[in-house]
User: Which sequence fits this backbone?
């Protein structure tokens, strides 16, 4: 009976002491586990965000022309992104080197480093991308699509289909404009119809049924009465060093037009007239 009463008396001082000791030992362990879980989660989250910011910066530099990719211009991109406080961005534009010697300025590396703190530790993400100097060529090459085929008049009095890569197809400096024919209804040889599928195989063939002829008018701007060809869909020229100009010029071309094909006898068209009356005309 005494033993039964003693067992029902509750926790003894020793029991409580043991329990408290266990709690004291376990609390720091639990807290450490919790802190580690939080730190790892926060580290992964911030690493992902930093990688996203660095990737975006790199992508924006790829939209720029080679000569525009400078530390100053990339820093402007960073400012416009409004990256949250807590991320430190460092940008370096590194010239390509070979055997410790900087070679001609044709290739550079864009290096973006984003640092951030997780707890008391500094972490970072570093991304780099090579940027090669573009070969900026004007006037813009004709865009044929499936509608036209390039043609050239030969000394033997015939029109022939040529390759669009034929270096004799056009030379605007020599007033020789790119001429193309509408593919629909075009025939070569003994009545063979030219199609988008066989036109490559018919290069060099004599055209026996002529369709409407067109000339390519490359994108240009008129400055002080002089025609200046523009690069791709920009409103800027290319200088003698092959670098994109910094001045935005006005043009009558749509923002997405590299040029336009016009009927060869469409002399009433303003674009045709302007180019034909410039130093690049009259067309031969």
Assistant:
């Amino acid at each position: 009976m005494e033993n039964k009463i003693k067992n029902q008396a509750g926790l003894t001082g020793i029991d409580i002491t043991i329990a408290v000791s266990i709690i004291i030992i376990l609390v720091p362990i639990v807290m450490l586990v919790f802190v580690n879980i939080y730190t790892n989660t926060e580290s992964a989250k911030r690493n992902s965000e930093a990688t996203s910011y660095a990737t975006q910066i790199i992508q924006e530099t790829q939209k720029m022309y080679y000569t525009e990719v400078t530390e100053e211009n990339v820093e402007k991109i960073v400012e416009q992104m409004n990256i949250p406080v807590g991320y430190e961005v460092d940008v370096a534009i590194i010239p390509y080197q070979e055997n410790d010697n900087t070679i001609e300025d044709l290739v550079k590396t864009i290096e973006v480093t984003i640092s951030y703190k997780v707890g008391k530790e500094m972490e970072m993400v570093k991304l780099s991308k090579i940027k090669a100097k573009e070969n900026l060529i004007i006037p813009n090459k004709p865009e044929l699509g499936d509608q036209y085929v390039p043609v050239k008049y030969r000394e033997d009095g015939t029109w022939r289909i040529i390759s669009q890569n034929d270096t004799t197809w056009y030379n605007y400096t020599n007033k020789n404009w790119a001429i193309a024919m509408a593919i629909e209804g075009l025939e070569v040889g003994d009545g063979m119809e030219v199609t988008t599928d066989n036109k490559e195989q018919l290069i060099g063939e004599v055209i026996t049924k002529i369709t409407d002829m067109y000339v390519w008018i490359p994108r240009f701007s008129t400055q002080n009465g002089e025609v200046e060809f523009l690069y791709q869909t920009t409103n800027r020229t290319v200088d003698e060093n092959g670098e994109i100009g910094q001045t935005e010029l006005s043009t009558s071309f749509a923002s997405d037009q590299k040029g336009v094909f016009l009927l060869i006898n469409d002399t009433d068209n303003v674009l045709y007239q302007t180019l034909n009356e410039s130093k690049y005309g009259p067309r031969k």
